[in-house]
Amino acid sequence: xxxxxxxxxxxxxxxxxxxxxxxxxxxxxxxxxxxxxxxxxxxxxxxxxxxxxxxxxxxxxxxxxxxxxxxxxxxxxxxxxxxxxxxxxxxxxxxxxxxxxxxxxxxxxxxxxxxxxxxxxxxxxxxxxxxxxxxxxxxxxxxxxxxxxxxxxxxxxxxxxxxxxxxxxxxxxxxxxxxxxxxxxxxxxxxxxxxxxxxxxxxxxxxxx
Length: 209
Prior knowledge:
cell membrane; 209 residues; mainly alpha; transmembrane
């Protein structure tokens, strides 16, 4: 397989995993089938949409509607298997890690191609990877995953930073992409398999005046 074919395959995997994660959250909140499709699509394309709006460029899925169609179909296809959700959470989390790795690198690269600063490129890379999940959680009325103990946004941040650094060092674009994606994937998989988490801040509620 060529690099382009491998990249497309990884995007398919990532979009499908993001869509399934959105569908599972919709099921936990007992949403109807339309809600399942909406949350699945939002997770899959939300991050890239926010990125493109901030960069003031055409939104990517408008030129390639298959992103939305694939996410919607996968989300709806999840419905018959909802009863087995407890068995597929880890495989979905692993596939989600692949999607996160790919989308963070793609988002960072796109920002750099727009000749933004390294700082902006890092922010755009992180947004591409996590914004869809944040929107999903807000719509589902729950605390966003990235604001809890998950090592998720941190993995995205490390990958985006490494991408910008490698690009600054003049490494070949293909090598830069794989290094950045590999770091995100490794950190996320280690967090999944070893239950890594970020320490939480606990403050006792004060008395009401």
